[in-house]
């Protein structure tokens, strides 16, 4: 594959409160969105070859990334696909919880992308639960992660947070679409995570969006943006 071949199509999906938080300041695990949000999450997952999450999301929530809705799963199976997309976690040193559902759920394929900073004993340990891909670097450059997924045949990739991971893909101009569900709640908290955290961007580097569609369902708003990456 030539080095310049276009990277896989990448979307981010996130549910946030009306005041722009993706969890509480206590980082509790709970569903922010409604059952319609979860169904739509499944639709986006079903369109994807791989879904990537950050190591803190796996540490805090630890859910397997599944297409839970039976009808959505069936239509994916009818297209000759596996029932669930490849579950990918990015973690520099493999500080991950082996006993969570992400690793124990039997019907998902799992890939950990890590670095040479990961201790050998942790690599051996996690190889029991997932394929472990070690990048020859001390940190995971998002572009290198995407190239590796592309090498494995992934054409459509979904990033499901959290805010640190979303920032790293957005700031590198690797994101094509951004799906945001605005849920009718206020969570507040200056340390509560938001859809895009990380270091942040200054005005000359801000990422610009084009509103592609919006849909109301009950008290929730489903918004889709195209990301302008020029
Ligand atoms: N509402 C939603 O839609 C939603 C979705 C997902 C998560 N969440 C919430 O978000 C919170 C977690 O978000 P978070 O921002 O704290 O953490 P995160 O984005 O889930 O994970 C960040 C961690 O991933 C690892 N990582 C590896 N490579 C990276 C890279 N290139 N860029 C960024 N991170 C990289 C780093 O840890 P290492 O040192 O291990 O490499 C980093 O600290 C939780 O409270 C969770 O519940 C909400």
Keywords:
alpha/beta, 230 residues, 25% helix, binds NADP nicotinamide-adenine-dinucleotide phosphate, 7 helices, Dihydrofolate Reductase, subunit A, nine-stranded mixed sheet, globular
Q: Give the overall shape, derived from the CA principal axes.
A: globular
Helix content: 10-25%
Bound molecules: NADP nicotinamide-adenine-dinucleotide phosphate
Largest sheet descriptor: 9 strands, mixed
CATH topology: Dihydrofolate Reductase, subunit A
Write out the strand line-up for the largest beta sheet, numbering strands in chain order: 5-4-3-2-6-1-7-9-8
Average pLDDT works out at 97
Strand tally is 9
CATH architecture: 3-Layer(aba) Sandwich
Count of the separate structural domains: 1
The CATH superfamily is identified as Dihydrofolate Reductase, subunit A
Number of helices: 7
Distance between the termini: 24 Å
In the CATH hierarchy, what is the class? Answer: Alpha Beta
Name the poorly predicted regions: none
User: What structural class do the secondary elements suggest?
Assistant: alpha/beta
Task: Describe the protein in words.
This protein is of the alpha/beta class and 230 residues long. The protein has a single domain, classed as Dihydrofolate Reductase, subunit A (3-Layer(aba) Sandwich). 25% of the residues lie in helices and 26% in strands. The longest helix has 12 residues. The radius of gyration is 17 Å and the shape is globular. The protein starts with 8 loop residues before the first strand and ends with a strand. The site of NADP nicotinamide-adenine-dinucleotide phosphate (NAP) has 29 residues, from strand 1, strand 2, helix 2 and helix 7.
